Structures are given as C-alpha cells and as structure tokens.
Amino acid sequence: MKASANAVAPALLCYCLLSRCATGAFDGYGGAMLGSLQFPGVWNISSALLSAVSGTLYLGARDTLLSVDAASLSSKQEAIVWKVPEEKRQLCMNKGKTEADCHNYILVLEFVEKDRIYACGTYAFDPQCAFINTVDFSLQREAGGGVRMEAGKGKCPFDPRQRHTTVMADGVLYSATTNNFMGTMPLISRATGPERERVRTEESSSWLSEPEFVSAALVRENAAGDDEKIYFFFSEVAEEYDLYMKVKTARVARVCKGDVGGMKVLQKRWTSFLKAGLV
Ligand SMILES: *[C@@H]1O[C@H](CO)[C@@H](O)[C@H](O)[C@H]1NC(C)=O
Predict the structure, then answer these.
(1) Of all protein residues, whose CA lies closest to atom 1 belonging to ligand 1?
(2) What is the DSSP-derived secondary structure letter of residue 15?
(3) Is the N or C terminus of the chain more exposed, i.e. has fewer CB atoms within 10 Å?
(4) Which residues have any ligand 1 atom within 6 Å of their CB?
C-alpha cells in the first residue's frame, strides 16, 4: 500500500481525463476518444484504473474488462469477458429496459490489494461485483467454475447512465451511488467490510437531494493529528432556496473514516457526515 502512495497523483489525473472521455461516451459521442478506434469490438468504456507500478491501465467497458499498456494504449492488450446470462438479460428487458442497457456495464474498478481489483458492473440492472487477479488478468472463480460474485447494490448504480463515484481506503470500498432499480434512492456508504460497519447516509433529501456524484478522495491523517477523512464531490438540488425552479449547486461532503455509526436511531448511519456548498 505504501509503495503506491506516489502513484496516486498521476493515477488521479489520468482517471479524471478518462472519466471525461467516459462522460463523453454517455453523452452520445460514442466513446470515439477512447474506444472503438483503439479497441475494436469494445463499447462504452466507463471506468479506468491505473497501476503506476506496472504501467498497466485497466478499463471497464460493456461486458468487458481490458488491461492495456498505459504508455502505448494499444500494445499488450488483454481482455476478460464478463457477461450477463441471456435469461437474466431477458428479465431485465421484461422490466421495460432496452436491450442495450441490459448488459454488464463495468463502472467500478478499485484495487483491493496490490494484485487484486474489485470490479462492479450494472449486470442488467442487478449490480454485481467480482475480483480480478492482475497477475494472470483473470476473474476469480468459484469451485464450480462460475464467476465469484458479490451483491453490488449500493456499490454501483443499476442504471449504466447514472453518475456515481467510489474510493477504496485500506481495502474498504466507500461508494456514492443509488441503490434501487429506479435510481431514485441516493446514498453515500461504507459499502464493504464487516456488516456492522456498513454505515450510510439517512434516506432524507436534507442529506442528499437528487445528487449527481463526481468524485471521491481519501485524505490521510495530517501532522496536526486530524484523523482520516473521506470527501465526496457532487452536485445536488439546493434545498436552502425556496424557489419555484430547481437550483443545482456544487457540494462537498465529508465523513470520518473511523465513523462506525451511532446508537439507537443513528445505528448504521454516519455520525460525522457534514456537507458544504462549493463556491
Ligand atoms: C454506449 O455507447 C453507445 C455508442 O457507442 C451509446 O449510444 C450508448 O448510449 C452508450 N450506452 C451507455 C449506457 O452509456
């Protein structure tokens, strides 16, 4: 973990550049900036993770994970296919979703350990997460041969078009997303780790009001002994203005990494959640 600390800055920069590309793809640019040109047959690249140690860039796309050489973006390509079974896709379409949206859009990629990635995809509107071994670039499998999956609800949106963000802090995933099929229930939570520590925001529009998540960051303890914090950047509908029209405003929210919730009504809820307007 320590060794990768220096890698954070370039990784963040690269990630930001790529997420802009990905947003472009969502806006209908067809992912032309990074997509079909370099990677024929690969659609909707929407997540990226850089290993500065090995110089490998991992990309999450539609039903596909790619591993490419970050320097050339073309040589040493490897791909993993992670698809949704046909009958499950049919169920998704029966619920009124389009054929195109009932795929597995891989939206979350984070290192759990040095050589293990946590990947989450929309999985035909039933989000699932899996582990990737980076040594041989493969999906971890169950004894029976199937992909080892974990529920992705609250970690990754159901809808591939919805904005979300995640950050991994010492092997634990913090996520800002929505956790229902309709995409109407936003939350910021500690999404992995021991069950009793899966703390989240209250279901109330004063905590989060139609948010669009942008990014998240871990800030380590500083010299003054201020403890570790997780920051989330997003925009939301401002409730402080009593106007007829909806006003979107930029926000930053902060929770303490050590927050494991409170007592009684605050069980499994953040007790350190604070948010502020960004000017
Ligand atoms: C995937 O990309 C296509 C164009 O390449 C675009 O029309 C479609 O909206 C994208 N889908 C999602 C879920 O972003």
Answers:
(1) 44
(2) H
(3) C
(4) 25-26, 28, 30-31, 43-44, 101, 105, 160-161
pLDDT average, residue stretch 225-250:
91
Q: CA dihedral defined by 47, 48, 49, 52, rounded to 10 degrees? A: -170
Mean pLDDT of 189-214: 96
Instruction: Give residue 220 CA to ligand 1 midpoint distance, Å.
Output: 37
Angle at 104 between CA 98 and CA 109, to 5 degrees: 140
Distances in Å between the Cα of 108 and the Cα atoms of 128, 131, 168 are 10, 11, 10
Q: What is the pTM for the complete model shown?
A: 0.86
DSSP string, 18-81: HHHHHHHIIIIITT-SSSTTTSTT-----EEEEETTTTEEEEE-BSEEEEEETTTSSTT-EEEE
Question: How much distance in Å is there from the Cα of 100 to the middle of ligand 1?
Answer: 8
